[in-house]
Amino acid sequence: MEFKDYDTTSLLQYTKRPPLVFTSGAGSWLTDHSGKRYLDFLQGWAVNCLGHAPRVVEQALSAQAKKLINPSPAFFNEPSIALAQLLTNNSCFDRAFFASSGAEANESAMKLARKWGQLHPAANGSSRFEIITFESSFHGRTLAMMSASGKPGWDTLFAPQVAGFPKARFNDIDSVAALISEHTVAVMLEPVQGEGGVVPATKEFMQALRALTQQLGLLLIVDEVQTGVGRTGAMFGYQLFGIEPDIMTLGKGIGGGVPLAAMLCREEVACFAPGDQGGTYTGHALMTAVGLAVTQEILAPGFLVSVQKKGTILAAGLEKLSVQFGLQGERGEGLLRALKLGSDIGPQIVEAARDLAPIGLLLNSPKPDLLRFMPALNVSTEEITQMLALLSEVIATIKA
Ligand SMILES: *Cc1c(COP(=O)(O)O)cnc(C)c1O
């Protein structure tokens, strides 16, 4: 099949897409309409944590589809109960709510925090509803989450914004303290800012933030839609910092490629009354069955150690490329890493890597001077080596 044989005009255009139609995938590899293969270090934006078409997902889907797809959120179902138990048993949280997208999980966290703020007003009776977020943060694309995000330009796109999300500077505790008022109820952050350029919070900042929020009776919310479920080499990103948040959201990796997200909270914060929150697909049996299988795989003995090991190998390889080509070094946690290019050649590299023949390479450039790497968590050492070789080839051509 050739690309010109596809008529894509019926699809709404909202993003620039290359003239490729992907037809199949296996592990770290994708194949397009012409049969060309690509080594995939995007994995649907850190979504396919076990790679493309993993057996675990295929089996969970087919077994659950034969049994029960969705009885409705008004009734209990087995997979959602089991997944909630597995997540709470392996985290500092007591309760789980399931949704279909990261933005929706974050909206749930915002609603829960605002509800909790209504139940726990300030000493002078002021209602507490403000949630402090950060510059360059990314929390999703609903109107409220675009307002919560600190992505440049989003304050005016689709204005007016949803109110109540003052922005502090990441890794700057004084900037957080300066925004706290009688209306503040919570602080929300990504343990590693993903879209913002793979910027990890410092341990010092995260610990100071936990101490400050605890002292003032504010909730600490971690958006782990990108960092959760093994991505950083820890099961959850917050565990890297030796702190315990009050609320955590998950998305992306937890579904291994299917639309599943979650919000977890401590018992003291679980204050939704009947009718406060819901959604047609919340706690979907088919999706939570996949989430259960994926989470079990990530929690299997040795899996997270292997993510840490491969993270170290990837980091060393990127550092070597940086030295070789006079770039600005690398950063990240586990298998969420970035290479700092020192100039705005990111988009050019992404395009040239994709167009390599006979094997293409799929990468992401969240900022023009940066490449982001988010391979499958079960990527092989050989695939990392191969990726580095392909990337080296591309950078050599562009730098020449
Ligand atoms: C991707 C992402 C989201 C949004 O998730 P969707 O499933 O696209 O709604 C929110 N927060 C973070 C940190 C993300 O990386």
Summarize this entry quickly:
The chain is α/β, with parallel strands linked by helices and 400 residues long. It has eleven helices and 17 strands.
Describe this structure in words.
The longest helix has 23 residues. This protein has eleven helices and 17 strands. The chain starts with 21 loop residues before the first strand and ends with a helix. The model has no long low-confidence stretch (mean pLDDT 97). The radius of gyration is 21 Å and the shape is globular. It is 35% helix and 18% strand. It has 400 residues and is of the alpha/beta class. Among the domains are: 224 residues, Aspartate Aminotransferase, domain 2 (3-Layer(aba) Sandwich), CATH 3.40.640.10; 40 residues, no CATH class. The chain binds pyridoxal-5'-phosphate (PLP). Pyridoxal-5'-phosphate (PLP) binds next to helix 4.
Which ligands accompany this protein? pyridoxal-5'-phosphate
- End-to-end Cα distance, whole Å, is 35 Å
Uncertain segments are none
Reading off the top of the CATH hierarchy, the class of the domain at 75-298 is best stated as Alpha Beta
In the CATH hierarchy, the architecture of the domain at 75-298 is 3-Layer(aba) Sandwich
In the CATH hierarchy, the third-tier topology of the domain at 75-298 is known as: Aspartate Aminotransferase, domain 2
**Count of beta strands:** 17
Determine the strand fraction and express it as a percent band: 15-25%
Give the overall shape: globular
What is the strand arrangement across the widest sheet? 4-12-11-10-7-5-6
Task: Report Rg.
Answer: 21 Å
Order of helices and strands: EEEHHHEHEHEHEEEHEEEHHEEHEEEH
Largest sheet: 7 strands, mixed
